[in-house]
Design brief:
- The chain is α+β, with helices and mostly antiparallel strands and 261 residues long.
- The protein is built from eight helices and seven strands.
- Strands 3-2-1-7-4-5-6 form a seven-stranded mixed beta sheet.
- A hairpin with a 4-residue loop joins β2 and β3.
């Protein structure tokens, strides 16, 4: 009898220990499970900017998204006016919907409403929400001196042409490494190829001329760039990106089918 009681006691102790272990296992497992932190979400700003464009609130959505990017990239502080930026994004959006541009996340904006003494070229990566380059750019000799106020699409006008362009391929020409442009607005800049309007480097686009004469040199209509930056800029924007050249010309805004689409 004593032997049986001892056996029962041992069995009871063993079963109790097993029961306690079982009910605590989930707690042990929960407390020792590795904790993972979700990776921060990456944002494709091109998709973010141009998604849901066919909804009833498309215009409001585009404005809201464009404003967010403008503020996040601090473009006002860099000197790019909100008006110029808004025209650029609106036209860029229209052209994307029509299938233009092989490279959809790069947009270049030349704001000729600014004097040539200011860095008025802005090359923006929308995916990264980042200004890649901000530098000087020349306007045509017959467009004005410090300010560009006269624009033309005519041959041998030696003036800048406003509007939207698509960048093409590169070549070696009279100015060295250069980038061809295709004007996308009929009657406004579609003579760009016939006028040899290209992006190239030029020794007259530099700050020393600003100090000596009060403005940078001028081209025959090309958006010429500083010699120390034109190659990396061309390599960044070549082969199917958007270029928008804006100026203080109300007639352009009225005539542009892209902006008014």
């Amino acid at each position: 009898m004593i032997m049986q009681n001892q056996i029962f006691k041992k069995a009871y102790v063993f079963l109790s220990a097993v029961f306690i272990l079982i009910i605590h296992l989930p707690l042990v497992s929960a407390n020792t499970r590795p904790q993972y932190t979700a990776a921060p979400e990456t944002v494709n700003y091109t998709s973010y900017l141009h998604s849901n464009i066919e909804t009833e609130t498309a215009k409001e959505d585009l404005i809201t998204r464009a404003n967010t990017l403008y503020e996040s990239m601090e473009l006002h502080e860099a000197g790019l006016s909100k008006q110029t930026y808004d025209y650029a994004i609106k036209g860029f959006d229209q052209l994307l919907q029509s299938g233009k541009f092989e490279n959809e996340h790069i947009i270049s904006i030349v704001d000729l409403s600014m004097p040539s003494t200011k860095k008025r070229l802005f090359i923006i990566d929308l995916n990264e929400a980042k200004v890649l380059f901000n530098t000087y750019v020349a306007h045509g000799v017959n467009s004005g001196k410090v300010m560009a106020s006269n624009f033309s699409n005519a041959l041998q006008s030696y003036k800048s042409s406003l509007g939207f362009y698509q960048t093409l391929g590169t070549y070696m020409g009279g100015h060295g490494y250069s980038l061809r442009l295709e004007g996308l607005e009929k009657g406004i800049n579609d003579n760009a190829n016939r006028r040899d309007i290209v992006i190239h480097g030029a020794p007259y686009v530099n700050e020393s001329l600003i100090r000596s004469q009060g403005y940078i040199g001028r081209s025959w209509g090309c958006p010429a760039l500083p010699e120390n930056l034109y190659k990396p800029i061309i390599n960044t924007i070549k082969n199917g990106t958007c270029l928008f050249i804006y100026g203080s010309d109300k007639s352009y805004i009225k005539r542009s089918k892209i902006i008014n689409a």
